[in-house]
User: Which sequence fits this backbone?
């Protein structure tokens, strides 16, 4: 196999190609339904997993080195940034996402860390212009440092709440400076390990106060993009307040945040919450809060957030189906919140992993377009609910009946016919559409 430095650009060579460093399905400038594939998919690189992660797990240290030959902390982070933009160029990725701590070295104090951060934001701005790249979103890492061990906005200590606010303020400023169109809150430790030491009511109210202040600050400074909550049920805490999409909707409604907040749905978080990815996307969509995607894949035999690069085409197709029905991404995009496996410890593996993830979603898009064109799925669902478009069903939907009328209607009937849900047939329809994508 070729070496990383020998690979200038990943080209689209089509499904027949056996070249490892080529796209088989992702053809960035191909127009599908009036938009190029790159516009449809809005792929983003995750800084933490791609530029910083070095393979460490709970049982062992790094298997890679990402200091790029430097020893001075600021020099290391500049080299990392150079690497990030060069990588995006090679992969034809237009967007990226980061946490504050991903892009700059920590200082001795919070103030010093934020100074390093601001300096690096200016450097990223230069690189963005030079490489014609965009920020999709940034976020504050308010879970890694010891002071956040009991949460940030839900910490029992108000000084820590303030420290988290300082970091979010700096990240919102950075988002505005870099032209980001979303801003993410993933509630890393915003939850609890035991209710015995937790004032759940105060913690939830404080989280809402925190998000409201962030919203107000962002809007005051001219941020017009979406604020996003990223649901996750557990890990690192036993219970996280942003458990899943439905829980987040309840929270946003309770605290009057529905107008400014949407959701960043992550595939692996969906399955940790015992939902399918498309369930979470559908829930966000029907509540009007679909924002963005963290694309990855879990391992059903491992009960944690394994953040694998997605290769399950079936799930990707069903996800892209939801996104097309939503009308596509607006301020959001498709961030690969995914990392190479610990044993895939070379720079070439990073390219191969992104190629797999991007081709998976390119196939997903192509199949989802076929699912819509084919029409069998939508037609089946439409027909299944036809009784709500006439007679008593129409009155239910229009709100022009009541319990008494329904009771006399039902009691006058002698029979209640049922119809098959045809699940197995529909599963075959999906397979038929999926595998005819490249049929001659
Ligand atoms: C962790 C989350 C995290 C967010 C950003 O599980 O997915 O990476 O996306 O803080
Ligand atoms: Ni994520
Ligand atoms: Ni995650």
Assistant:
């Amino acid at each position: 196999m070729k070496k990383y430095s020998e690979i200038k650009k990943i080209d689209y060579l089509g499904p027949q190609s056996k070249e490892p460093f080529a796209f088989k399905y992702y053809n960035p400038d191909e127009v599908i339904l009036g938009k190029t594939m790159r516009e449809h998919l809005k792929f983003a690189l995750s800084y933490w997993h791609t530029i910083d992660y070095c393979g460490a797990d709970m049982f062992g240290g790094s298997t890679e080195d990402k200091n790029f030959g430097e020893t001075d902390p600021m020099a290391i982070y500049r080299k990392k940034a150079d690497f990030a933009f060069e990588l995006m160029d090679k992969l034809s990725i237009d967007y990226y996402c980061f946490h504050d701590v991903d892009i700059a070295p920590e200082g001795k104090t919070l103030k010093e860390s934020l100074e390093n951060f601001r300096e690096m934001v200016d450097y990223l701005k230069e690189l963005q212009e030079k490489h014609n790249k965009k920020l999709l979103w940034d976020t504050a890492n308010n879970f890694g440092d010891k002071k956040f061990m009991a949460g940030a906005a839900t910490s029992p200590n108000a000084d820590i709440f303030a420290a988290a606010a300082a970091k979010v303020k700096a990240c919102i400023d950075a988002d505005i400076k870099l032209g980001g169109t979303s801003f993410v809150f993933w509630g890393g430790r915003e939850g609890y390990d035991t209710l015995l030491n937790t004032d759940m009511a105060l913690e939830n109210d404080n989280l809402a106060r925190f998000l409201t202040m962030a919203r107000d600050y962002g809007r005051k400074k001219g941020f017009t993009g979406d604020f996003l909550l990223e649901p996750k049920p557990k890990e690192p805490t036993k219970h996280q307040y942003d458990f899943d999409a439905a829980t987040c909707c309840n929270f946003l409604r309770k605290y009057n945040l529905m107008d400014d907040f949407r959701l960043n749905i992550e595939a692996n978080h969906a399955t940790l919450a015992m939902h399918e990815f498309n369930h979470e996307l559908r829930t966000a969509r029907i509540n009007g809060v679909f924002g963005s995607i963290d694309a990855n894949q879990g391992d059903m035999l491992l009960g944690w957030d394994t953040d694998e690069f997605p290769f399950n085409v079936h799930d990707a197709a069903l996800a892209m189906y939801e996104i097309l029905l939503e009308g596509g991404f607006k301020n959001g995009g498709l961030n690969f919140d995914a990392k190479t496996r610990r044993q895939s410890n070379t720079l070439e593996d990073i390219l191969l992993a992104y190629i797999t993830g991007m081709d998976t979603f390119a196939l997903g898009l192509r199949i989802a377009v076929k699912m819509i064109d084919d029409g069998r799925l939508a037609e089946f669902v439409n027909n299944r609910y036809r009784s709500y478009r006439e007679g008593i069903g129409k009155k239910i939907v229009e709100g022009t009946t009541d319990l008494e009328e329904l009771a006399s209607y039902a009691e006058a009937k002698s029979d209640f016919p049922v119809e098959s849900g045809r699940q197995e047939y529909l599963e075959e329809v999906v397979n038929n559409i999926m595998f005819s994508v490249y049929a001659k």
